[in-house]
Amino acid sequence: MATTSLTSVSSTFLQTEFPLKRTKRHINRCSVSKCPFNPISVAPIKSSGSETADTTSLSPVPQNPLPETNKKLPLRKIPGDYGLPLVGPIKDRLDYFYNGGRDKFFRTRAHKYQSTVFRANMPPGPFISNNPNVIVLLDGKSFPVLFDTSKVEKRDLFTGTFMPSTELTGGYRILSYLDPSEPKHDQLKRFLFYLLTSRISHFIPEFHSSYAKLFDTLEKQLAKNGKASFAEANDQAAFNYLAKALYGVNPSETDLKNEAPKIITKWTLLQLSPILSLGLPKYIEEAVFHTFRLPPILVKKDYQRLYDFFYDAASGPVLEEAVRLGVSKEEAVHNLIFATCFNSFGGMKIFFPNMLKWIGRAGVNLHSKLAEEIRSAVKSNGGKVTMAAMEQMPLMKSVVYESFRIEPPVPLQYGKAKHDFVIENHENSFQVKEGEMLFGFQPFATKDPKIFDRPDEFVGERFIGEEGEKLLKHVLWSNGPETEQPTVSNKQCAGKDFVVLFSRLLVVEFFLRYDTFGIQVGKSPIGSAITFTSLKKATF
Ligand code: HEM
């Protein structure tokens, strides 16, 4: 795993050549009117629980990985159709959200067409997206075409077949919406690499500080109520962590106080409501969220508070670097808001509960092994959590990768064909025409039974050892194989190494403090809602 981990410090950007300290805050704020707002070998661990029904792969019978062949596959017309205008897209939307849900939507169509590649409409459809027609990719072989920027354009499709109003991002098209062919993509991605590189020395200590407080809070709640919800405490800890780690600022000492999570949730809802189900009655959701856009004005004042916070927090070398790269301070701040609040905070909000769910359900056997491995590595590193110590935790690293594989936090990916080309699944080849929209449902691609043995099981040690590491190229959560790195010319997640680091840190800090834990799992619009029912303090 050495070549893929941040702990080897092999990445293109997470190196400490730009040591930085936060400087005094500038008071130069942008007012609303001035801003256009506008790898130990262990026995396999089988996860228990009903949730597997929700996330199962396409084949009920797992098969062994197939060897790659150069054999030409028979050309097949892409099966499926889009239905009548308006009617087809609305029917598909209702099926997707309400008639069995998302997994069933894809599974039934794959079964009907006997193909992991087919045509369908993706929400939102009328009247939000102009064209909801997509070619669905559900297997691990066809899916990676979405990473090939010589074949697909990634312009304005970060959220799918519609793009949220740029009024929600200060009037700017943010980096996540830019195609690498646009010069701004290079400048902005470089800018984020600079930010991450310059702050690397803060990533481990600040995580300990913010998440120790979260564990204190959970323990108090457990003592008082017999249970403790993870979501709210995680929201606070995540934002505080990001603010301190990336900018050296404690939000509670600023005008923003502890209100960022609430504001970000509202701001994110305005962007994603067309493609979310909030669990409200169908007719309300359809009328209010899925048919028309919510007006950006609803969050304008709140967004301004974020802007002021980030402008102050980033003033000094960070914004100076933006200007040096040819990005205005204003555009840089809107991009920092998006990278911190949408990409990072949003990622932690979805992935942390999901990972705790899978580890929680795996049971005490896995917990004990993790606790032993983590504590022993930390002990032999002078009692400190360091990058080097984490390199000596193969099970912990594998568990984090397995969590990303079994339930990728960003499940939907899009790319528009730049020209005519042929794509392949395991059985066929298919002709794609220029301008057609390709859509990959990642949870099925990373549970492809032709690639992964026991694809629907949470196998904690899956990625341990030489054979395990070979599978990492099929872990795709970052919009690219885990064995590759984000660059200015691809669309792989700019925060990939940071994300792997903070996800590992959650597991490390957790099992330094606790031997095992109990949870109840509920649903939330963006994933799992975790309630702790027990936290057993470390006994060794
Ligand atoms: C669990 C956390 C995260 C997940 C699951 C995640 C996932 C992703 C995915 C799937 C994409 C590609 C989307 C697409 O184009 O279809 C992406 C892009 C991106 N992510 Fe992340 N991300 C996370 C955290 C972060 C963090 C911490 C940062 C930055 C500090 C970040 C910055 C970005 C940026 C800037 C892009 C666009 C890259 C480009 O345009 O070349 N993400 N991320």
Automatic annotation (TrEMBL):
Xref: InterPro entries: Cyt_P450, Cyt_P450_E_grp-IV, Cyt_P450_sf
Polar residues biased stretches: 47-61
Biological processes per GO annotation: jasmonic acid biosynthetic process; oxylipin biosynthetic process; sterol metabolic process
Spans annotated as Disordered: 46-74
The protein, known as: Allene oxide synthase 1, chloroplastic-like
One annotated Gene Ontology cellular component of this protein: chloroplast thylakoid membrane
Entry similarity comment: Belongs to the cytochrome P450 family.
Ligand binding (heme): C493
MF annotations from Gene Ontology: heme binding; iron ion binding; lyase activity; monooxygenase activity; oxidoreductase activity, acting on paired donors, with incorporation or reduction of molecular oxygen
Keywords: Fatty acid biosynthesis, Fatty acid metabolism, Heme, Iron, Lipid biosynthesis, Lipid metabolism, Lyase, Metal-binding, Oxylipin biosynthesis
Cofactor entry: heme
